[in-house]
Amino acid sequence: MSGQALTGPLVVPAGETCQLMNGTVVTGSVIVQSTGALVISDSTVRGSVTITGGTVAALPGAHVWNSIDARQPTYVEVSGARVDGSVIVRDRPVGAGSIFIEDFYGPRNQIGGNLAATNNRGTSSVDLLRNDIRGNLICSGNQTITHFGNNVGGSSLGQCAAP
Fold first, then answer.
1. What own/partner pairs with CB < 8 Å and gap ≥ 24 does 43-51 have?
2. Backbone angles phi and psi of 67, in degrees to 5
3. Which residue spans within 42-155 are E strands per DSSP?
4. What percent of the chain has pLDDT over 90?
5. What is the pLDDT of residue 110?
6. Closest alpha carbon to 120 in 160, 152, 64, 83
7. What is the spatial distance between Cα 53 and Cα 30, in angstroms, rounded to a whole number?
């Protein structure tokens, strides 16, 4: 969808892909069902994004007014985005794709709440790199995790605690 005004909740069904691009505004939340995929670029979600068993990519120019909550995700990428609430990635199963929350494609992510990565399994990357986080950086129970260059307004806890 490009340049549209939509009223949520917007549901991305299992197996489907939704692309919010070029100034699209969703007033309300977005829910991504298992095996669904959501891509946000240069667009706004005036609510939360919830993913259960699916994929999300919030790329440069993405603005989520509340939080991104990814449970059992198959792939997560947040790069060059603004999230006014928290970014939570938890319970990624073995065999799922990587988790990239970093400035790979653009400016640093602006996260207004906490950045939390918990209980993510598998050998794929969990990279939390060069983010501006107003709240806490919370990491626990992850099989692999890389974190550096984050500006944290609160505390860095668990696996992300300073040595």
1. 45/8, 45/20, 47/8, 47/9, 48/85, 51/76
2. -115, 165
3. 44-46, 49-52, 55-58, 63-64, 68-71, 75-78, 82-83, 87-90, 99-102, 110-111, 115-118, 126-129, 132-133, 137-140, 146-148, 151-152
4. 88
5. 98
6. 160
7. 14
Task: Write the single-letter amino acid at 143.
Answer: Q
Query: Using an 8 Å Cβ cutoff, are 50 and 12 in contact?
Result: no
- 97-133: per-residue pLDDT in tens? 899 999 887 789 999 999 999 999 988 889 999 999 9
Indicate the pTM of the whole model: 0.95
3-class DSSP state of 104:
coil
Of 147, 103, 142, 145, the closest CA to residue 119 belongs to 142
Residue 65 CA to residue 86 CA, distance in Å, equals 10
Q: Measure the CA–CA gap between 59 and 77, rounded to whole angstroms.
A: 8
CA distance 14 to 142: 26
In the chain, % helix, strand, coil (3-state, to 5) comes to 0, 50, 50
